[in-house]
Specification:
Helix content is 80%, strand content 0%. By secondary structure, it is mostly helical.
Amino acid sequence: MNLIARIEERLAAALARRWWLLVLRGVAAIAFGIFAWAWPGISLASLVLVFGAYSLADGVLALGTAMAGPADHEARWIVVLEGLVGIGVGILTFVAPAITALALVFYIAIWAVSTGIIEIILAIRLRKEIEGEWLLGLAGLASVAFGVMMMWQPGAGALTLLWLIAGYAVLFGVLLLTLAFRVRRFLKH
């Protein structure tokens, strides 16, 4: 077994041991989506703060996942980068809460595309190490597609934006939960 394969196996094992972090990320995404659906009349300012809180929490949990992995793993930076992007977007959202709907669309789109690309890369890197890695890749693809769609139609109304965000968050959360329980099985092998 070559060095890269051993390192990827160690990362997969660390991810399996910390599968509950993926569960927390999935639950946070689903809760955010349900919150957005339950209160469709939410103001844009509230949406900005809720999204900022979600992005910040997701970034912190991603960093927690990266720190749980082996320090010498060369792909660890991918998860660290994902966490930093989430934290950065969350902080930026709180620093400028009065942003316009158009700016919010681009904040969300850039975050979704960048984290989606990172998740696709991570899924490719772990394809031989974990079962169900395609779910992480699919979650990444959903993120990229969502972000591109947001950039393509930035003038969508706030309610439409809210429904799109809620649907994406629930889908992303379900995919992360599914991945978490598949990765958890890795512990038993």
